[in-house]
Design a protein that fits this description.
The chain is about 60% helix and about 0% strand. The protein contains 4 helices and no strands. The longest helix has 15 residues. The protein is globular and about 35 Å long.
Length: about 90
């Protein structure tokens, strides 16, 4: 997840119009839905993540709870990266 953290923070910062340092300071387990992440932004975030990481996230994983913290976003990305066939 650590290799994805910087990218996730940058995507969130752009989407939420926040400084990346603020998101890092909040920590990986801070609930982003409490102050920053609305349901509309959740959809935008998933689209951004799919495009950036080249993934297709299944509809059943399109839940606010799956992207409510930086750690959970990283876990979701890792899950889908592991499901992809390796590119050799």
């Amino acid at each position: 997840m650590l290799e994805n953290k910087e990218s996730i923070v940058n995507i969130l910062a752009k989407l939420l119009s926040l400084e990346p340092e603020l998101l890092v300071a909040l920590g990986g387990d801070a609930d982003l839905t409490e102050q920053y992440l609305s349901s509309v932004l959740v959809v935008e975030l998933v689209v951004e993540l799919e495009q950036y990481f080249g993934l297709m996230i299944d509809d059943e994983d399109l839940l606010t709870e799956n992207v409510s913290t930086i750690r959970k976003i990283g876990e979701l990305i890792s899950k889908y990266k592991e499901m992809q066939p390796s590119k050799e």
